[in-house]
S-formylglutathione hydrolase (Bermanella marisrubri), 280 residues
Amino acid sequence: MSLDILSSAKVFDGWHKQYRHQSTSTRCEMRFAIFLPPQTATGEKVPVLYWLSGLTCTEENFMQKAGAFAEAAKLGIAIVAPDTSPRGEMVADDAEGSYDFGLGAGFYVNATQAPFDQHYQMYDYVVSELPNLIEEHFPVTDQRAISGHSMGGHGSLMIALRNSERYSSASAFSPIANPINCPWGQKAFKGYLGDNESDWTQYDSSELMKRSENKQLPMLVDQGDADNFLDEQLRPQTLVDAAELSQYPLTLRMQPGYDHSYYFISTFISEHLRFHSRYF
Ligand SMILES: N[C@@H](CCC(=O)N[C@@H](CSC=O)C(=O)NCC(=O)O)C(=O)O
């Protein structure tokens, strides 16, 4: 599969680059951004952290706002940030054009409902197609970690729980921890997966964690207690309860005074990078 480079900039002795490519999973053109740390300049292969962004984001938000490059350069970790949905003229969007469904809101699931099933196959894209592409084209190992924010925090925990053999660790900032029981998740799962709520649980981190039978991964979650989405949308306590039930090695830290923004992410992203680097 060929890649078109869109931008390239030197940063902290490494490189930030954006690419586009034709995706077989989403059947449209997809974009992603990659940070390659300085170690790769001499051909050294490095592990990869996959970052999944939240509602309304593209591949750019994390790279521009998280302030992750200095620590990733020091630790020798590549970071890959995909877009949050398929895009293009032929890609269906929410009828009202709302921010929490459709474009910019793929929820990292494989849609089964028309017309979204045509392109909204973000689960397959993130779990298989993108890592295959990255490992074919860049100087990286097959050691992977996964992290994300909000909708992307839901994605990172859910994907790690379902594919524990593919990752060495997982983390999240302000994840939608129990999407089947919050308005954002219910709207998205109904639209992408249909009315049968039993089909939704396969994509719900708290449900997956409760009945986790796969290898358990080290998992770190940070949540601000001044987050305006905390009680209605994020529901971190459901994840804590699930971890207790299955003895899952989850560390969930309530961070006093922090909100839902990238100011919060930028405060703790270095700790998350150091956390992941311990398990590569
Ligand atoms: N527009 C919405 C909220 C949009 C929002 O806060 N998006 C977050 C992710 S929320 C969960 O997935 C985000 O990361 N925005 C991009 C950024 O760069 O900050 C509203 O007004 O409620």
